[in-house]
């Protein structure tokens, strides 16, 4: 009997030690709201100044979104990460590539695309978000004109619309990639740039932005603070904050991770977007549905990333991407009849308020979801099985499934 007591104490001590070692991530996972219903948001970045064909593509997207209704009758929503200006390559060529010129979304040439974005928002199927004044940092772009043959060739041969075809490091707006590893921008410079882009967003769309999506997901706490000071309430993230481009030009310098509904030091609410659906790169519906299912099991919203280029390339590419988007929404609705469609701003508000119509309140279901989230921590899962801590967690999950009680 004494041996049994000693063994129980020993096992309990090991389990307590393991839980203590992982207490911070486990506490964060518990505090992350668990959704009571599936939530799907399609997020599309890089839309901005472009030809009438881009407006036509948006019209096709709006038609598809409007056809799909969730359990409440709400149409599907695509958030738009809006870019407000592009390089004026014709003017840059005229000035001999000596200085940077730009064209904004307010130029008459871009009336069709701007009106299409506003109309989609008025219909409730597009939700406009701030992606950036430009998809690059202008001084970096100017230096690259002199130093980078790829950038020079791009200026000499393109109309400046497809900034997504620039070298990847150049596309980061909130770090100076004229040297690698990239260097931080000054706080004063950041504040001035944020003030400009927020003001221009309002000029273009008649409202101030409340959601920001950092270009290439590279930004820092100074950018975040400036955004909040100018009315941004929500930041869409990949689940971590990358602050620079490393010596190889890759995003790096992670200084924090985040979960849905966590708040930064600035007070901004974070959302995590980590499902990728790029038909132009060969992505298809079935793997995307599997990712959505994983998020549903873990009580998390499915924020799906898809870029403008999918819908503005060749005709074959456009048609394939539109068909896949339509099929994705159809299959998701079939698989999850209680699916909800929301904008990112609406989701963040509901999560922050712990809206009982959307956020799980039942303790047993919250505990079940929490166990599933904890199991996704690879090292913790392995140690839990080695020490036996996984056994009571597994038994709880099995009992809950078989009992059907909540």
Automatic annotation (TrEMBL):
What domain of life is recorded for the organism? Bacteria
Gene3D superfamilies per UniProt: Glycoside hydrolase/deacetylase (3.20.20.370)
A GO molecular function term, named singly, is:
hydrolase activity
Q: Which GO terms describe its biological process?
A: carbohydrate metabolic process
Asked if the Swiss-Prot or TrEMBL record annotates the protein with the keyword Hydrolase, the reply is yes
Q: Where is the Glycoside hydrolase family 57 N-terminal domain?
A: 187-244
Per UniProt, which keywords does this protein have?
Carbohydrate metabolism, Hydrolase
Q: Does the record carry Phosphoprotein as a key word?
A: no
Q: Where are the transmembrane segments?
A: none
Q: Which family does it belong to?
A: Belongs to the glycosyl hydrolase 57 family.
Under what name is this protein listed? Glycosyl hydrolase family 57
Q: Which organism encodes this protein?
A: Thiocystis violascens (strain ATCC 17096 / DSM 198 / 6111) (Chromatium violascens)
């Amino acid at each position: 009997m004494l041996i049994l007591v000693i063994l129980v104490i020993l096992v309990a001590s090991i389990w307590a030690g393991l839980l203590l070692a992982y207490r911070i991530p486990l506490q964060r996972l518990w505090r992350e709201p668990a959704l009571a219903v599936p939530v799907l948001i399609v997020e599309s970045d890089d839309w901005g100044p472009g030809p009438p064909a881009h407006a036509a593509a948006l019209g096709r997207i709006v038609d598809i979104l409007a056809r799909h209704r969730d359990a409440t009758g709400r149409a599907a929503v695509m958030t738009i990460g809006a870019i407000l200006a592009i390089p004026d390559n014709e003017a840059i060529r005229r000035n001999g590539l000596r200085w940077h010129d730009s064209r904004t979304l307010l130029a008459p040439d871009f009336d069709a695309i701007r009106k299409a974005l506003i109309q989609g928002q008025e219909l409730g199927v597009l939700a406009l978000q701030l992606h950036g004044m430009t998809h690059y940092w202008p001084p970096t772009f100017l230096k690259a004109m002199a130093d980078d043959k790829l950038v020079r060739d791009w200026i000499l041969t393109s109309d400046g619309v497809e900034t997504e075809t620039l070298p990847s490091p150049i596309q980061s707006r909130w770090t100076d990639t004229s040297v690698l590893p990239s260097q931080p921008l000054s706080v004063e410079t950041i504040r001035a740039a944020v003030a400009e882009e927020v003001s221009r967003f309002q000029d273009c769309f008649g409202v101030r932005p409340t959601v920001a999506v950092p270009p290439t997901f590279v930004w820092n706490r100074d950018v975040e603070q400036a955004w909040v000071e100018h009315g941004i309430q929500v930041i869409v993230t990949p689940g971590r904050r990358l602050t620079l481009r490393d010596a190889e030009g890759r995003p790096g310098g992670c200084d924090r991770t985040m979960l849905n509904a966590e708040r930064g030091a600035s007070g901004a609410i974070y959302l995590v977007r980590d499902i990728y659906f790029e038909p132009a790169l060969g992505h298809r519906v079935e793997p995307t549905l599997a990712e959505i299912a994983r998020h549903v099991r873990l009580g998390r919203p499915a924020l799906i990333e898809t870029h403008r280029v999918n819908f503005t390339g060749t005709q074959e590419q456009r048609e394939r991407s539109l068909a896949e988007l339509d099929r994705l929404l159809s299959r998701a609705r079939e698989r999850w009849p209680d699916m909800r469609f929301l904008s990112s701003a609406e989701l963040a508000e509901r999560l922050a308020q712990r809206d009982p119509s959307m956020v799980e309140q039942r303790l047993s279901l919250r505990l079940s979801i929490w166990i599933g989230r904890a199991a996704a921590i690879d090292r913790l899962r392995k140690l839990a099985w080695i020490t036996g801590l996984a056994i009571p967690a597994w038994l709880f999950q099995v009992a809950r499934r078989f009992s059907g009680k909540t």
